[in-house]
Amino acid sequence: MFMAIIWGTNFAVVKRALSEMLPLAFNALRFSLASIFLFLAMILSEGKFLLDKKDFKGIFLLGLIGHTCYQFLFIYGIARTSASVSSLMLATSPVFVAVLSLLAQQERPSAKLLFGVSLSLTGVFVLMLGSPSGFMSAERDALGAVLVLIGAICWATYTVFSKPYLARYSPLRLTTITMVFGTLVLDVLAIPSLLAQRWGKTSLVGWTGLAYSFGLAIVFGYVVWDIGIDRVGPRRTAVYQNLIPVIAAIVSYVLLGETLGGLQIGGAGMVVLGVYLTRKT
Question: How many domains does the chain have?
Answer without folding.
Answer: 1
